[in-house]
Amino acid sequence: MDEIRTHHWQWLPETIYLGGGTPSLMDADLLRSILSAIPATNLTELTLECAPGTITPERLCAWAGCGINRVSLGVQSFIETELHQTGRRHNAETVERDVTALHDSGITNINIDLIAGLPGQTMASWEKSLDCLERLNTPHVSIYIFEIDEDSRLGKEALLGGIRYGAPSLPSDDLTAELYEHTVIRLCQLGIQRYEISNFARPGTESRHNLKYWLLEPYVGFGLDAHSYDGRRRWSNPDTLDAYCASAPPDVSETDRDEEQFFVGLRLTRGIVPTTAQWTRWAEPIDKWSTAGLLEREGNRLRLSDRGVLLSNEVFQEFINAE
Questions:
Q1: In Å, how far are 86, 118, 161, 182, 287 from 78, measured between CA atoms?
Q2: What's the CATH number of domain 256-323, 3.90.470, 1.10.10, 1.10.760, 3.40.50?
Q3: Per-residue pLDDT averaged across 102-122, rounded?
C-alpha cells in the first residue's frame, strides 16, 4: 500500500489488473483501500484474477462496489485428473457455478485460462475441456502452453527420465502443438479470434490492459516481483519478501525499442508495421524467417505465420541477437 501511495504518477492509469496469488480472497476493505490509493479518474477496465471456487455473494457485492468489471478465472483444465496433477481442487461444476454467479452480478466480461500440455492430457481430454468452454460461452479465453520449471520436482524428474510427479504422462511437444492448433480452429468457429499468441476474444472484448504490454505503452506494477515500463526503461521489484519489505532498489534496465517492437509486438496476430530503418536493420532475420515460412509480409505489415506462432521463441531470439 505504501508503495502505491508514494509513487510519483506521471500519467493516470486507464486500466487496473489485480493479479498474482489469489486476489479474489482479498478482504473487501483492503481491496477498497488499494483501489482508492490509485489516482484513476477514467478507468475503462478493472480486472481481478480469481481462483475457481472462491466466489461468494459477499465478495461479488464488494467487487461490484469497487468497480470490478472483468474477472479472469484460472481454470487450467476442466478434467479432474489433470487438475489433481496441478494441485487444484475445483471441477467443471465449480467453474460453471462461478460463471453463472458472475453473470448474475452483472460481470459478463470473463476470461478463462486453460493450459495445453498438462501431465496426462490427451486430445480426447482436451476436447472435453473445449466442450465445457463452449457451453460457458465466455467472451475471452487464454491458452497457455505448459512449461516445465527445471528447478521444480516435475522438471527435474522429466529431465532425468523419472516416473514420479506425472513426468511419464507429459504430452509430447508434437501433441501439445496439435492441442493448441486444434484450439485455434475450434475457438474461431465460436467467433473467438486469436489476437495474441495466447489470447483469444470476441471482437471488442480483448484485454485492454494486456494490450498495453504488447503495444509498448507504459505501465507500473506494485508488489513483490512486480514489473514496470515507462517507454524507455524496464524495472522490477525484488522477488523475495525480505528484500521487498526492506525496500531494496528495483532492478532497472534500459531497453532497445526496436528490439522490443519485434519480440513483443510480433506476439499480436496483426503483427507490426516496421519503419524503413527497422526493415533495413532486421533485413537478414526477416528474410530468413520469411523464407522458412515463419514470418509473412502483407504490404508494410509483418506478422508471424500460423506455424511461426508455434516457433515464436526461436524467431524472437533472432531479433534480440541480430545487429
A1: 12, 12, 28, 17, 42
A2: 1.10.10
A3: 95
